[in-house]
Amino acid sequence: MRLVGDNIPEQGVYPLSKALAMAEELELDLVEIAPTAAPPVCKIIDYQKFKYQQRKKQKEQKANASKVVIKEIRFGPQTDEHDYNFKLKHAQSFLQEGCKVKAYVFFRGRSILFSEQGEKLLLRFALELEEYGKAEQMPKLEGKRMIMMIAPVKKK
Questions:
Q1: For the residues of 59-122, what is the DSSP string, one character each?
Q2: Is 4:11 a contact under the CB 8 Å cutoff?
Q3: Does the pTM exceed 0.90?
Q4: Residue 104 CA to chain centroid, in angstroms?
Q5: How many CB atoms lie within 10 A of CB 34?
Q6: Secondary structure of 53-67 in HEC code, one letter for each residue
Q7: Tens digits of per-residue pLDDT, 14-65?
Q8: How far is CA 153 from the centre of its chain?
Q9: Among 83, 79, 86, residue whose Cα is nearest residue 106
Q10: In CATH, what number does 70-152 get?
């Protein structure tokens, strides 16, 4: 097997018995790193310390991962201009904070007949939010709701 690492005097290919003897001499563990390589690659290290560092790296990566927050904004098919502007300002602030916005038009009873009116409303909404966010999906009718997702634009 091929031995690599900082603890060994000479890196190279050694028989298993010699590699184990070297690890025992240094009071460390022989850890197989790449079993599929020919010959397999091993390293002489403190295994407990190695596992601890791996857990620490995973924890850091998990902490750095951004959590996606979705804010919902609901419209009716005949939403008034003032209400529309009020919700537009809220959506702008949500997108500036880095949250995704899920805008939807909720159709009640026979108002489903105005589905094209709801689609126009959502498209206008996305157009006016273009500098703050980008539409992830076009308006899509799901049951009594017409839904559209808007993701924030990456800051440079």
A1: HHHHHHSPPP-EEEEEE-TT--HHHHHHHHHHHHHHHHHT-EEEEEEEP-GGGGGGHHHHHHHH
A2: yes
A3: no
A4: 24
A5: 14
A6: HHHHHHHHHHHHCCC
A7: 888 988 888 888 888 888 888 898 889 988 888 898 899 999 999 988 887 7
A8: 15
A9: 79
A10: 3.30.110.10
Domain boundaries, the chain: 2-62, 70-152
Is the predicted pLDDT of residue 7 greater than 80, yes or no? no
Residue with tokens 């979705």: 70
Domain at 2-62: CATH architecture: Roll (3.10)
pLDDT tens digits along 56-109? 999 988 887 777 889 999 998 888 899 999 999 999 999 988 889 999 999 888
Place of tokens 């805008």: 103
Residues 81, 124 contacting (CB under 8 angstroms): no
